[in-house]
Design brief:
heterodimer; A: 408 residues; alpha+beta; DNA polymerase, domain 1; Alpha-D-Glucose-1,6-Bisphosphate, Chain A, domain 4; 7-stranded antiparallel β-sheet; 6-stranded mixed β-sheet; 10 helices; B: 302 residues; Uridine Diphospho-n-acetylenolpyruvylglucosamine Reductase, domain 2; Uridine Diphospho-n-acetylenolpyruvylglucosamine Reductase, domain 3; Enolase-like, domain 1; 5-stranded antiparallel β-sheet; 4-stranded antiparallel β-sheet; 25% strand; globular; binds flavin-adenine dinucleotide; binds FE2/S2 (inorganic) cluster
């Protein structure tokens, strides 16, 4: 554990600067001294996995790791954590690669409403990482720092015991702590700034027609990777015509609209996405890096009016296939703020479906028809239904697999 | 449940910390595990918090002159697992009872002693071992024995402009044994009643001291050498634990009647606290004595 650096006296109406590492990413916040770590994580960094119940240290919902040891985030002032390393439940595992504890909680039905789950996961991670040989009969006392109103604790204890038995030589570390961008929202009125790698490099609205030299992508793993191949009926020449006309190409993208051409292959635009109750509206810029008959490479960057951000690197290639074309789209998408809270896989499903819809619109455009994708907000309902039913199928498959695993 | 605004400072030396504490309405922030709930509930509204966690000399845990010296920002959890702390077995016995792991990760030993909650474990440990509190102020440093340190519920001799820089626990010697027990509704809650016990056996001679907590406005310390000697006269110098407990039972009832002086509250009546204290006393004094015997024979402390 390293000591924080000394910090000069800051008056009650001023802000204090704190630099900490959250789930592997360094971040600097400037906050009033009374802001707790739980509020900083939730409100300033958009990491709402850390729950807040009592806000005075009793319930354990807000349990996180500070320098590898579990602590109550509601009993820490964010400003105390200068130089500290914080791990939250978001850092523990990935939706597509859960931590063994998360797996075990699912398998044992160790959650009902789920409100206490982040707290229990972080507390039990702390326990097993420091005491891998913990005895079964000591688990109730060792886990007593977190309260649960639903489960009656037995399944939680069973889940933790299961992981303890399977990992006597040490539990795997948090699986989602790669360096990545952290951008949150800044609550109205709070003078908080979030320093992050490059996301604020472009302010799309107030650029006066200028554009930056390039759009830099955050370091670390993207939030979503899309890799879709669609078979088009149109031939290679027709697709090449659409690839050659950025305006037409943009109209194929559901919900997107080009509003300005800034020259030198830079464009400004907006995109609207609506999913059930969710309405997202992005303003941003795109930069075409390569434009050939059979290949377009672009980068885009946008801000959602709610304070989230998105950056993407997209590569589209068209290869002849039979009488038509096989359109391959690859995208690395980095999401931050509230949209990131959508969850990796739901956002992933949605983007994949958007690309599929894009491919259909491109096929229409190549055939000389109206792409007809931008006129309505992207088939919101159909995208969501499609995405949800995909997930439903996956979950069923996972359940079946889980059942198979458990039968001896 | 949000704290009212306050000024914040994180000095880098004890001197700077003392200078900041000289300001009106200043409060020490150590682990924050008692102070932050108070702020959140707005039970207290200090104007400035002096965070002592950046002062290198206050973070130390050292062994010197037969003492374990625990600095003001040393965390309970680190002390619990620190090699040097093994030489103060009573501290090791008591720490797992302080809140939960998650609380001990941040809470400090000195903060708990300075906060002086009547139900807290560590003030009783300090009292039972007759630890020394090192208090620094503008005028210099004074050393206060535990017996004079606690002045009432959540009150100690530390002045508003002073800082508890260190608690010095005597390291256990061969022939010493310890006992610790408490009863709380749930693990991690403050105790309804608890006892810390220190016994030293040298040949035929026994010295025993107890500190009870949760039963008065501060830890209550008693020399119970005479009672232990009488019980040993009945049970024999090498009794089994159940035999010694039985021999101690009447004495324990009497001691409990003397030390318990809280009125009943929603959690427990006075009579119930007396019964708990008596039960804990006979069990833990018996255990401490048996450990002291073994320790005398093996030349180690327990
Ligand atoms: C859910 C929960 C359960 C708990 N259960 C228990 C329990 O069972 N037993 C128990 O003993 N405690 C318990 N605690 C309290 C815990 O042990 C605290 O850590 C401890 O009482 C205070 O230590 P701290 O370092 O957190 O001090 P802080 O909260 O930072 O400070 C507490 C008070 O002491 C003053 N202070 C702190 N350090 C110094 C110093 N060096 N010099 C002068 N003044 C100082 C502060 O100004 C403040 O007034 C519990 C806390 C919680 C939240
Ligand atoms: S919200 Fe932190 S302990 Fe309840
Ligand atoms: S699952 Fe609902 S509180 Fe624990």
């Amino acid at each position: 554990m390293s000591l924080p650096r000394a910090y000069a006296r800051t008056e009650a109406d001023e802000t204090v600067e704190v630099t900490m590492t959250v789930n592997g990413s360094a971040t600097t916040l400037s906050l009033p001294s009374r802001v707790t770590l739980s509020d900083a994580l939730r409100d300033h960094l958009g990491l709402t996995g850390t729950h807040v119940g009592c806000e005075h240290g009793i319930c354990g919902m807000c349990t996180i790791l500070v320098d590898g040891e579990a602590a109550r985030a509601c009993l820490l002032l964010a400003v105390q954590l200068d130089g500290a390393e914080i791990t939250t439940v978001e850092g523990l595992g990935r939706q597509d690669d859960l931590h063994p504890l998360q797996e075990a909680f699912g398998r044992h039905h160790a959650l009902q409403c789920g409100f206490c789950t982040p707290g229990f996961l972080m507390s039990s991670y702390d326990l097993l990482s420091h005491q891998p040989d913990v005895r079964t009969e000591d688990l109730p006392a060792e886990l007593s720092g977190v309260l649960c109103r639903c489960t009656g604790y037995r399944n939680i204890v069973d889940a933790v015991d299961d992981v303890a038995q399977a990992h006597r030589d040490g539990i795997p570390g948090p699986g989602n702590c790669a360096a990545r961008t952290l951008v949150g929202r800044t609550p109205a009125g709070a003078a908080a700034t979030v320093a992050v790698d490059a996301v604020d490099a472009v302010d799309p609205g107030e650029d006066g027609g200028r554009h930056p030299d390039e759009i830099t992508l955050p370091v670390g793993e993207p939030t979503i990777t899309v890799d879709v191949t669609s078979e088009l009926e149109s031939g290679p020449e027709d697709v090449a015509r659409v690839f050659g006309d950025i305006r037409l190409l943009a109209r194929c993208l559901p919900g997107a609209e080009l509003t300005d051409e800034l020259g030198h292959d830079w464009y400004r635009g907006r995109a609207r996405i609506s999913l059930g109750p969710v309405r997202l509206s992005f303003q941003g810029m795109a930069h075409i890096l390569e434009q050939h008959d059979d290949r377009v490479v672009m980068r885009g960057q946008g801000k959602d009016t709610g304070g989230g951000g998105a950056q993407a690197h997209i590569v589209m290639t068209a290869a002849p296939s039979g009488s038509g074309v096989s359109l391959h789209a690859e995208a690395r998408v980095f999401l931050t703020g509230r949209i990131a809270g959508f969850g990796r896989s739901l956002a992933g499903d949605v983007s994949r479906r958007m690309f599929e819809e894009f491919a259909r619109a491109l096929d229409r455009a190549a055939a000389g028809a109206e792409p007809d994708a931008h006129s309505r907000p992207p088939g919101a309902v159909s995208i969501l239904v499609g995405a949800l039913s995909d997930r439903f199928r996956q979950r069923l498959a996972r359940l079946r697999a889980g059942r198979r695993r458990r039968t001896p | 449940m949000k704290a009212a605004p306050f000024a914040y400072v994180r000095p880098g030396s004890t001197q700077d910390a003392l200078a900041e504490l000289g300001r009106d309405g200043a409060k020490v922030l150590a682990g924050g595990q008692s102070l932050v709930p108070v702020l959140a509930m707005r039970l207290g509204r200090p104007s400035v918090l002096v965070d002592i966690n950046a002062v290198p000399e206050l973070a130390r845990i050292t062994r010197a002159d037969g003492q374990l010296r625990v600095g003001a920002s040393a965390r309970q959890r680190h002390v619990q697992h620190h090699a040097a702390a093994a030489e103060v077995p009573l501290l090791r016995l008591a720490l797992p009872w302080v809140g939960h792991r998650e609380i001990r990760s941040r809470g400090t030993v000195c903060g708990s002693v300075a906060h002086a909650d009547p139900s807290a474990e560590l003030p009783a440990v300090a009292a039972c071992l007759d630890a020394t509190m090192v208090v620094a102020g503008a005028e210099g440093v004074r050393e206060v024995p535990a017996g004079e340190f606690f002045t009432g519920a959540m009150s100690t001799v530390i002045g508003a402009e002073e800082l508890l820089t260190e608690v010095r626990f005597p390291v256990a010697a061969p022939g010493e044994g310890h006992g610790f027990g408490e009863f709380a509704r749930r693990h991690g809650d403050f105790a309804l009643a608890g006892v810390a016990v220190w016994v030293r056996t040298t040949g035929e001679d026994v010295v025993a001291r107890i500190s009870c907590f949760g039963v008065s406005d501060r830890p209550v310390t008693r020399d119970v050498s005479a009672q232990l000697s009488e019980a040993l006269a009945t049970a024999g110098a090498r009794p089994t634990e159940p035999d010694l407990r039985r021999a101690l039972a009447d004495h324990a009832d009497q001691i409990a009647d003397e030390v318990v002086d809280t009125g009943g509250d929603a959690h427990a009546s006075t009579a119930y606290r007396c019964r708990l204290t008596a039960g804990l006393l006979s069990r833990e004094v018996a255990r401490a004595y048996l450990k002291s015997l073994r320790s005398a024979e093996e030349g180690t402390s327990r």
